[in-house]
Amino acid sequence: MKKVYPFKIPKSLHESLIVQIDRATVLYDKLHQHEEVQITYVVSGNGKLFVADSIHNFGPGDLFVIPSNSPHLFQNNIEEGIEAHMISLFFSGNTVVKAFAHFPELGNIRSFLHELGAGMKLSPCPENLAEQMQEFPSLVPFRKFTRFLSLLDRLTRVSKVPLTGFVYPKEISHNEGQRMRAIFEYVTNNFQKEISLNDIADLAYMTPNAFCRFFKQRTNKTFFQFLIELRIEHACQLLAQGHDVPIGEIAYKSGFRSISNFNRKFKELKGMAPSKYYRSMEVGTF
DNA sequence: GACCCAGCAAGCATCTGATC
DNA sequence: GATCAGATGCTTGCTGGGTC
């Protein structure tokens, strides 16, 4: 098995803020974590973002704030062949909180970073924030820093959607990381097929019972809860694409073998039936 | 008539607590 | 991390009602 995390953001001695542009059809495809807080704006591309115990669809105009040491992975939708274009900022949350400690004027930003635990999503991101993110790569260091302050200030005032209900308490060990990565990789590549607990436990070199415990301890949800969420997110993507595909076919393509079970799970997670979700996408209420 | 959705019951897979 | 037993809850298949 290949070696992966923990990830280290390359940073020079003269920079506290890293701006990174990613342009690729296949993004960095390993579940990873790093000490730096990550703010990512999606210019183009779409796919799935895995953060800790949660899965989110991403698309153009979305902005994500991923907290320190939160395991995550952006997976671009290769089937559509659209290149993903993302602009990301990385910075040490602890350093910023400490540096701002003596400036009462920055109290709101300090509290914001302190309470960032679950991360956040802005979908779609307000236009002024989107413009700010796209300007970052062309700014000189000083302007980059002042713009960064302004960005954080704006983020404290927008309405946010938390990314996850589970805050990772610590860094994952290397062995645990390899296991979790193998599990995520297998599931994301095979969720449309039937996956048994035995299959996935074998993959982790564990008994089914030990695997259930291992997975729950590290994600705060059962393996099948995770799998169902992944399948429902995929179904949402298919529904959002329109094309008048029957609900039954979408259920099948998302890995469900029974429409009634698909309907039930969909409603549990999205609060509405699949057909209602499809209609709401058509009239643009999302 | 076709499709979608929800309710129900049975069987089975999965989860959990206790213990080693 | 493994084993065991009991509890829990998930899946499946069937049915009937609603909507277009």
Automatic annotation (TrEMBL):
It comes from the Bacteria. The keyword DNA-binding applies. The keyword DNA-binding applies. Residues 181-280 form the HTH araC/xylS-type domain. Keywords: DNA-binding, Transcription, Transcription regulation. GO terms for molecular function: DNA-binding transcription factor activity; sequence-specific DNA binding. InterPro entries: AraC-bd, Homeodomain-like_sf, HTH_AraC, HTH_AraC-typ_CS, RmlC-like_jellyroll, RmlC_Cupin_sf, Tscrpt_reg_AraC-type_HTH. This is HTH araC/xylS-type domain-containing protein.
